[in-house]
């Protein structure tokens, strides 16, 4: 079992008379990701409404903030009991057997225009046997072709831009991998967390974007940017792409924060059942699949 | 009350060993749209699984078809008791009060890149008082600027393309209107049905795409293409945009159908409570809002 | 020496009161391409002004046509004495030694956005030794990745679209190859002619677009679509891309022609010095470089 | 007559073993723009080759620089005797009468995709009588719709982006105006100089991009960004768009300069024939049209 302690501190300066925020920085509730304790502080103090998306376990905090400075501080300790599987035993799910709630993840989205990549995806990966290894091949293809470079892209950059320009940050790697998976009818979604284990040379600890792919009834984790250690990813949110799963969506006027986000994450040990996150060859999932409904 | 009888006949020639289809041609179940009777025929005969999306009431029929010809025939009779409202009494919902399940409809999507239209939308519509009339102004703006021309666009055409090129079909009008609404934080979604009342000069009866906008707790109908009579729209599906709400999504090889889709729709009268769909100035909705869950 | 006889017949129906045309269907005058005889017929009869571009040798025929049908017929017999060279002896020209009039061909243009392909081009071809063989590698890369399919693209399709979608016609292959060359600072331009030697299975004889690359003081011919025999290419025009070098640019209203273009080209033999165009491994040029000016 | 004294100081740090530059910072030679004196200093000292484009009068300085710092300093004093004309007397030139060398300026280019704006341009400006006033209306349309904001765009931003996003710097205003003119078959080109008379609130004196439109045998100056005084524009270069007319094109590795460009420009007076540049309603040109060739 992995136990992680994380903290997030965000500063804003609200300009307009008031401003609405939707934050997605609370640790998601999944069958394998359990919050042991958490604390939220808002300065100035105000009531924050936290809503649970019952399908995905994501939690959204909505604030209506007055003009002036706003500081959001969140700390949590989380236990993750990964579903781990031998990649060789994980197959793709034929379209005819995909659950209805998974189908949207094979359709194109704002930043993942998979509809335009059918020929490319088939030419590059169509000959590989379906299964986890094929998805890993897609992940490696993206990882080898795209250069990680901070501040090289912006909020309009899409998978097609990254395919062409071959540079980006973690969200761009994720978008391109997602688009290629969907072009092969493999459901893929965007996930957010913190870059546990990232090389300090890349900068201070930051939010991270990675990929979850639906294979054999689980959403498995892939990290095409290769900048961090997937076993240490605590999931905040998931979505079709970054349009759905920003850590903060702001409706109103906000000045660039006086301070950048300050994040920390560390793995806890000390009891026999706790291990440190490490790079591993097992397939990992923190999600046993959507809850049964209907 | 409106009573409509419709029929749809679709032909395909499946090329590959087999092919998966997801059809969304069943009349949606909503609190105001009731199916009196319906019939489905598949030739060659096979079992079809029809799944209900409990949130939106859309119904998806999934087929796994063998190589060879496939004919899908569907007939239904539907009663619609519209929610009708005086436009002057309908306001916009502030972001801070939008239900969580409505929030995704203010985010950009594949064909509705609202994130790039913030300045344009604010310059053109920011000075108008919030409410139904402002959304109607957006609808009229799109309607006046875009030329309806059959076959002028394709499956990759997005709202930005339509803004630039100013030509398109009903789905393109819908995408542009949706993108402009979202740029103003007004939730808007894509809806599909049949073009009841369309001028025969535009061609034979066809599938139709239009817009639903979330205002005052209802999803109100808008038809930016102006080619048909909204009061006669029977809803099949809704989605973020055409990527989510195609009447048919095909996974596999299919030859262009030997025959085009053949659709018919007519309004029934004969009893005192039945009226014909007409153009009206009232705001119309076939959806009382998402069901209460959680 | 190659001798080719060609004919072109084009039909238009001018709709508006009048319409301006710029045709580029006359055989270009170059030091190695000599017109033995040619004839032009316009129906209805009118005066046609043919202007020579003294830099490139292209000839532009401008017509101001009245409403009604217009037929343009052109026949020519041309002799080509190719400059032929052993590819192993052909180097690239360093930017610092490129003539000023060649510099524009390393800059991006409407359909060849080389500025966005620097990383991709360097990653794929940066390790190859500069020279003709590297350009041939670019040509082969494009040829292998893109599928030739009639009517798969339109007049707005650019090199980036072709890179993403991997399908197109000869002009799309040319645009992608040009963009990749320029991304490596290798001057490349768009050339037009007739698809001598094309497989009849691809359709009737048609206009052709190919590439000329500036290497060692000559503009060498490359055909990334691989659909025809370069030794049989008679050059009509050159330009930065298809925006500059259309066979017909039309200013005004014209109905889709009642008949498609009708082209014919054949190689003549019968005297000892005349040979048939064949695929060959020699580098070919019909252009000894721009005339010395200033 | 206008007399301007200008100075430019540019710093680079060449990283790679060596680097090629093409500078276009010398005052252009035109029939109405005369260099009284000029001086160039390169540090470290080296030979610089300055080539004249005989068609446009632009001068290109090419350097092959070794690794290490490079400073380029240029000063000039220029006399401009504008061609001035009453706008009411200036008409558009019908396509059928455009000189061949002007035709390329009605075709689309990298950043000015006029081919996609035909309907929009015709809808917005097609009803206006042809002539200078219509071009002025295009200039005003762009000026009113686009917000000037430093650093809001980058080197890939095109006219379509500016049309959609409605923000940019002078080069973006110029690209959009050029694209709209060409969509109406009005030849338009990109011109570069210094922002004489710009409001210091916009930042220090900088390079400027503006538009020249071919009307009645002259290339008339338009400044859609409205940030400076056109009568004080000294022309350095012209081109199809910014791809052709950068003040510096760099082939090789260069670090962001330790110092930003330092530009100064001032108008000289003191003799009776010298006047200060002012905003005026006359049409202005520094170019009597291309030299007669052929």
From TrEMBL, chains A, B, C, D:
Residue intervals of the Transglutaminase-like domain: 162-226
Highest taxon of source: Bacteria
SUPFAM superfamilies linked to this entry: Cysteine proteinases
Gene3D superfamilies to which the protein is assigned, alphabetical: 2.60.40.2250, 3.10.620.30
Entries under InterPro entries matching the protein: Bact_transglu_N_2, Papain-like_cys_pep_sf, Transglutaminase-like
The name this protein goes by in its record: Transglutaminase family protein
Native species: Sphaerotilus sulfidivorans
Lineage, top ranks: Bacteria, Pseudomonadati, Pseudomonadota, Betaproteobacteria, Burkholderiales
């Amino acid at each position: 079992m992995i136990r992680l302690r994380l903290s997030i501190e965000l500063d804003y300066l609200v300009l307009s008379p008031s401003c609405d925020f939707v934050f997605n920085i609370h640790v998601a509730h999944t069958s394998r990701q359990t919050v042991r304790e958490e604390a939220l502080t808002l300065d100035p103090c105000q009531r924050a409404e936290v809503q649970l998306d019952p399908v995905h376990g994501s939690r959204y905090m909505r604030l209506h903030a007055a003009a002036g400075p706003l500081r959001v501080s969140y700390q949590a300790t989380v236990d993750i009991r990964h579903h781990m599987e031998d990649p060789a035993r994980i197959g793709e799910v034929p379209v005819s057997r995909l659950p209805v709630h998974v189908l949207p993840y094979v359709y194109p989205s704002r930043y993942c225009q998979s509809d335009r990549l059918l020929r490319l995806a088939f030419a590059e990966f169509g000959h590989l046997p379906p299964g986890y290894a094929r998805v890993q091949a897609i992940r490696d293809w993206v990882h080898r072709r795209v250069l990680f470079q901070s501040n090289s892209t912006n909020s309009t950059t899409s998978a097609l831009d990254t395919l062409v320009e071959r540079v980006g940050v973690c969200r761009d790697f994720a978008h391109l991998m997602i688009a290629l998976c969907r072009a092969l009818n493999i459901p893929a979604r965007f996930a957010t967390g913190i870059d546990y284990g990232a090389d300090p040379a890349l900068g201070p600890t930051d939010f991270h974007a990675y990929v979850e792919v639906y294979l054999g009834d689980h959403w498995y984790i892939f990290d095409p940017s290769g900048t961090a250690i997937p076993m240490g990813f605590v999931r905040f949110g998931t979505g079709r792409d970054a349009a759905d799963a920003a850590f903060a969506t702001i409706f109103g006027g906000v000045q660039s924060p006086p301070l950048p986000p300050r994040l920390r994450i560390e793995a806890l040990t000390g009891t026999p059942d706790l291990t440190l996150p490490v790079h591993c060859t097992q397939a990992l999932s923190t999600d046993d699949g959507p809850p049964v409904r209907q």
